Amino acid sequence: MNGKKGTWKFIPTKEKISIVALKLFSRKGFKGTTIKDIAKKVGITEGAIYRHFTNKEEIINYLITRISEELRTLIETKVLPCKGIREQVSRLVELLVNYAFDNPDAFRFLTVYHILRHNNNSIQLPGSILINLFRKAYRKGDIKVSPEVALSLIIGSVERLFILWELNIIDLPRKQLVEELKSATLKALFGC
Amino acid sequence: MNGKKGTWKFIPTKEKISIVALKLFSRKGFKGTTIKDIAKKVGITEGAIYRHFTNKEEIINYLITRISEELRTLIETKVLPCKGIREQVSRLVELLVNYAFDNPDAFRFLTVYHILRHNNNSIQLPGSILINLFRKAYRKGDIKVSPEVALSLIIGSVERLFILWELNIIDLPRKQLVEELKSATLKALFGC
Amino acid sequence: MNGKKGTWKFIPTKEKISIVALKLFSRKGFKGTTIKDIAKKVGITEGAIYRHFTNKEEIINYLITRISEELRTLIETKVLPCKGIREQVSRLVELLVNYAFDNPDAFRFLTVYHILRHNNNSIQLPGSILINLFRKAYRKGDIKVSPEVALSLIIGSVERLFILWELNIIDLPRKQLVEELKSATLKALFGC
Amino acid sequence: MNGKKGTWKFIPTKEKISIVALKLFSRKGFKGTTIKDIAKKVGITEGAIYRHFTNKEEIINYLITRISEELRTLIETKVLPCKGIREQVSRLVELLVNYAFDNPDAFRFLTVYHILRHNNNSIQLPGSILINLFRKAYRKGDIKVSPEVALSLIIGSVERLFILWELNIIDLPRKQLVEELKSATLKALFGC
DNA sequence: TATGAATGAGCTTTCATTCAT
DNA sequence: TATGAATGAAAGCTCATTCAT
Description:
The structure is a homotetramer of 192-residue chains. Chain A is mainly α. Chain A has helices spanning 13-28, 35-42, 46-49, 56-79, 85-102, 104-116, 127-139, 147-166, 174-190. The first copy, chain A, folds into two domains: 11-54, Orthogonal Bundle (Arc Repressor Mutant, subunit A), CATH 1.10.10; 66-190, Tetracycline Repressor, domain 2, CATH 1.10.357. Helix content of chain A is 69%, strand content 0%.
């Protein structure tokens, strides 16, 4: 509607709903976002939403599944194939920062989902691949910190960095953020 | 009601409401928590809540103000007086982990508030003191990473570590977590 | 509280409640006035009201009874004893205007009661004496208009005049209003 | 539902709500009438009301605006064009009595609104046109009573006459009421 | 596919009333 | 007499969902 590109009107309705819902859910929470809110922003009526999703819950599941898969695929194709844990960590930080800054709604959605739904275990979140990665490295002695601490350090840092960025507290160029965070993380996990 | 200590019945109603509301808000979000939920858990009727708080919003403000102040005071008395930025960071990690694990509802509430209310700037959150701490250290050359990255690294790690702990993914003793996170953070900020 | 005289604090509580209730009921209606509103303005708590009146309804009945009697007594002592219907009408207009301007809350209350409660017939309102007065005069041929029209003319005029006065639409001195209304009414009922 | 005509079911919902709300507000006041009352009488659920009006206040505003305009238009087309103030007053009395008896709910609503809302000045009530009419006549010397007294006399009489009629105290034919009130008013304003 | 009216349950809040102190 | 905490019913309003068109 407002700041959207000219292609907006050619996007299929289901996709429009996903985009709008992602933005709203990630900012106002699940109960805090109403079907009416979504419909209004999409430019259709409430009833029309139900032509594309059977209910609100399904929208949420659709989003979390899609995002999880997307991020998992990225990790599997861009991080895991790298040689050596150092290189993997380096790429992971890079990937996460870039993903967060390129897909802010999706990244925020993941966080909201994590905090408000830490019960639903039917969906495999990206974190589970990473924890395995670090467990192996820990067992082999490649990193000295526990796998959970390693994971927390990386994901947590990016998450918080992203929040500060959204609050306009940070105005450093993205490249610098990636470099600093990468080097800090590497030092934290492997020493200097 | 369920797992509460024997002193529960002697706690004043307003305090009971705060305790229950903190737990529920931090787990189910603001819209996801109803006044009825709170009243039922406290053991009173919905109307009685309004003797103590004028509305739902006021409960939220009361909680965020109280927690922010508590944490700020802790930082001001336990972290800032330490000599040297290394010692300060060390104490900060310790403080945050302990606070999170001792006050899980309050810590979770802070995170939820941050994500779902990142517009309200009338309340001074604890983060603002810390960012100043790191800015000074950065200007003096005591740390090499940007202050925002430093802050993100510390707070983000603790936050995520705490989430994993609540999901029962971590079963390491708290002392070890503190030590590992402390050493990792120090390395990240100061090198080895 | 605000514009009240210094004697306010020496007035018995029941009387204070009556005064405040009269003002509020007459301005905001019966449902529009809450026990809390009354209590707050009196300077006591809600519970205390119930030491003086068994319930809200009783306050209303107490007020309408008291005002009706007061006005009836005034009519019986100041209007009925006059000789001749002309003199009686003259005195009636005078009495009503003065009563309205001296007891605005009471007069407004009567109107509100009339409009919002035109069902309750257990209380004898002042109008019923007057209607009898005009019926007799009509039968004797002393007035040419029907008794109901005569009554409507007098009471209605005063009522509306009073509303305009309260809205600050009228700024004529009271004496002039009385004189004008008196003369107009006399002409209306008796010709010139 | 009860005594309604056969066309009821073909009236659009918004109009049904207006009709029912007008009746209830004018009899029980604004706070004394609930959305549930209205919905029940219309034959829909409470929620459905909010498809047609955003809130209770809007229903009240819609009604007062509509009625004010209707009455103002009537005055402008049927009263003002008459030649001479005598003829105008004569037609005004006629118009008001007929309007009141043909639209009892609307007329009662106006009165209730006047008494319970004598603060809201955003809506131009019909009285303001009339006061101008009488002011001019007074300045020209066509009437001897102050404009406000003249207005009070006419509107007040009709209002009260109408109340007595609704209370079944009057059982005279309408024509006679109009004639008597007209002649009484003319005498009051212009002498015989 | 989409609309728009409607439902029904549930939400936040209000309020007359009660009661232990 | 008065307080203040509490109740319970009901108020205004919201919202996910349904359905005829």
